[in-house]
Amino acid sequence: MAIHNQKRSIKYLKKNRRIVKINKKEVLNMRKVRIKILITSVGSLVGHNILDVLESPLFCRRDLVKIIGSNSIVNSPNNFRCDKCYKVPNTSTDEFSSRMIEIIRREEPDLILSARDEDTEALMVLMNNNQQLKGRLPYGELKTLTYALNKWQTWLFTQKYDLPFANTFVMGKSGGINELKSFVKEVGYPMIAKPIQGFASKGVFFVRNWNQVEKVSTLKNYMFQEYLGKPDAMDNYFELMDEFSPLFASAPGIYHHSCHTFISPKGDIDKIFISKNDHKNGATVGFRRVKNDELEALAISYAKAIYNEGGYGPLTVQFRLDKNDNWKAQEMNFRTNGNTFPRFMMGQDDLGLIINGILPDLNFPIYYAPEEASDYIIEKSLLPNIMSIENLEELNNNGVWKR
Predict the structure, then answer these.
(1) Which of 108, 33, 28 is nearest to 64 (CA)?
(2) Strand locations in 250-362, DSSP E?
(3) To which H or E segment does residue 124 belong?
(4) pLDDT tier at 234 (50, 70, 90 boundaries)?
């Protein structure tokens, strides 16, 4: 990206709660910043968001960063937005770790960002077992990561700190069949069934009667969760599903409130960014910033509890109102996510906060959006991309592509 975009957008920065003008010398110093970031699963939506933030004409910093990507899928356009990209085995395979060690040893990144939940845990284990490798992960301790990656551990963590969370039941851990009946009586139908370790709403479905409860209770690594929302709002949808089987289906009116912040290694908690996220087919399609003092206080309580357990880095907690209009969390994660770029456009540069929080000596520039950006309404859409056959063949045949 051309540096003139950056010069135009960094004319003013907020520093120490006041606006200061940046002089030409500071601009030149910012050009000299050169950080190397490794993004795993760079072809994912999260990888797309990270690249969009760095390349944004609002505050372009792409020239300040060397991007090393890794991906198991060759024909992803994001691969070729990197400076160099490596083809890697799937995260679940035995070959993944040895390939990542080879890449990290060769590239010596300053920062490593995982773009999928599976990568996050695998990389944390890998780096803990190979501490001679260069590269910082912005995720605190492995045990705190499990509070987001393992939803049973999420439940135990929230109960330890008396944090509001959707009531949860796992067969064999919460109790047996009698305890499950008591749980169903307490939370009512519909309930949510989901994998204990899952992501992106995959394998999540509604449970609406006892026959379905019995079937789910036999599934391996599944859990029941209280449905957060008004049950009768789903009646028409369920009636339609009972009568017909749509080729594609998405529950109507599904949304949550997302609270995002960054916890520094010293325990400082950045301002809570709250958004209302509208869903379709399990993905956020509409995004609007909101203010809510109660949610802000709850998010701060979550952040303090995470730090108390040894965790830090990016934190997102998803909240919904239960049937009694009480806020409860339904999920949380500790990484950049699919809304990193919308948050950036509306005033929270969590990528800049991560870089400066983990690598403070770099003084990486942070974007501060104009005040009116908080009122933006953001809708997501798909964009077509062009990839050259030569680039695809180079990555597939050589295992690496570079500019």
Answers:
(1) 33
(2) 255-263, 273-280, 283-289, 313-321, 327-333
(3) helix 117-129
(4) confident
Mean pLDDT of the chain: 87
Q: What is the mean pLDDT of residues 320-342?
A: 91
CA–CA distance from 18 to each of 12, 41, 258, 351 (Å)? 10, 38, 28, 21
User: How large is the greatest C-alpha to C-alpha distance in the chain, in angstroms?
Assistant: 71
> How many Cβ atoms sit within 10 Å of the Cβ of residue 31?
13
230, 326 contact by CB (below 8 A): no
Range of the domain at 218: 167-227
CB-count burial class (<10 Å; 0-12, 13-18, 19+) for 386: exposed
Prediction pTM value = 0.86
Final residue in a domain of this structure, among 212, 227, 242: 227
Q: Beta strand pairing status for 65-71 and 35-40?
A: parallel
Q: In this predicted structure, what is the pLDDT of residue 14?
A: 39
- Grouping H, G, I as helix, E, B as strand and the rest as coil, residue 329 is strand
* Residue 234: burial class (beta carbons within 10 Å; 0-12, 13-18, 19+): buried
**Separation between Cα atoms, residue 55 and residue 47, nearest integer Å:** 12
Closest CA to 67 of 96, 101, 34: 34
| Structural domain total, the chain | 2
Tens-digit pLDDT profile for residues 155-179: 999 999 999 999 999 999 999 999 9
**Tokens coding 337:** 């996510």
User: In sequence order, what DSSP letters do the residues of 78-98 get, joined into one string?
Assistant: GGGGSSEEEE---TTSTHHHH
Q: Is residue 301 part of a domain?
A: no
Task: Indicate whether 125 and 180 sit together in one domain.
Answer: no
pLDDT tens for residues 247-296? Answer: 666 776 778 899 999 999 999 999 999 999 887 766 667 788 999 999 99
161 belongs to a structural domain = no
More confident residue, 11 or 98: 98
The pLDDT of 66-78, averaged and rounded, is 96
- Is residue 110 assigned to a domain? yes
Q: Give whole-number Cα distances, 249 to 148, 237, 240, 244, 373, in Å.
A: 27, 10, 10, 11, 33
Residues 6 and 106 both lie in one domain: yes
Indicate the pairing of strand 377-379 with strand 12-15.
Answer: unpaired
- Contact (Cβ atoms closer than 8 angstroms) between residue 11 and residue 22: yes
Q: 44, 114, 46, 79: which is closest to 341 by C-alpha?
A: 46
